[in-house]
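Take one protein record:
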Amino acid sequence: MTVTPLGLFCEPGGFYIDPSRPVDRAVVSHGHADHARPGHRAVLATPDTLAIMRARFGEDRAGDVQQPLGYGESVTVNGVRITLLPAGHVLGSAQVALEWRGSRIVVSGDYKRRRDPTCAGFEVMECDVFVTEATFALPVFRHPPDSHEIRRLLDSVALFPERAHVVGAYALGKTQRIIALLREAGWDRPVYLHGAVEKLCTLYESLGVPLGDLRPVPKGLKRGHPPILAGEIVLAPPSAEATPWARRLADPVTCAASGWMTVRQRAKLRGVELPLIVSDHADWDELLETIEEVRAPEIWVTHGRDDALVHALSLRGIRGRALHLVGRGDEEDEGAPEAPSTEEEADKARGAH
């Protein structure tokens, strides 16, 4: 396995893992834009990830040849055995296990260790080299239970019934997870959606993830129409609260669901009234727990706070290596261009005229 300007390249297999630009042969860990790119000639991924890529890029841009591989199934390419394991990040997300000449490398992609009702949970596989993300690799990041944060949201809705609650959440994975967690907490009323997140919610349901009563935020209101959706919960891209779209809502409480909400200054700078610490990545303790469980003598760190994690590994007698891959972003960052934030952009993304 070598690091190239395009990303991780498996030399004997002749394929890349999550390449940053179109290549002949790609193994894609999950559907987020910093891992799944359009225009590859051949793509191997889980069936759900391929469905997400088709929905986002179009049938003709998700790979000229699309090879689905289910969790726990294996295929051999030029003598390299490829197995996909659940990563627990979003629907369809996978770790990529590579076996060649008696050694095993596991590339985690992005992952979390918390239970998520919308996707399969992370599975541990022991290996010789573990390639891990490090998005929240600082001791300050210790995420509270999801149920605690959802209860804070519901308590706020009860406290301010005259206001709409607008939760900024990433379009793929985070939005659907928040909805599912709300359902588990007993919220059986409609959840209202910004146009930019509707398509992927519909896709999740078509792939067997029930989300309950979902409704679009009403459009076409006449000038002077009273504010709407008081006492309701609205899901939208993180940047939508700052657009004219939000003005139709009843005195909206601005919320944001992200691991970054641990950093209160970050929430304050964004004008977030109710920060919700709900992350789709492993926190500091979970990163170290995972590294201990895979029992790999060598750990490669792909992005995030690699310096802190590599140092922590050295104190444990584990070899750490920062890979500094190009093109890896953070989909929990409010600046990530993952979903359109205006209804006009959302309509264009859906192909509306």
Summary: The chain is about 25% helix and 25% strand. Residues 124 and 294 are 6 Å apart (CA to CA).
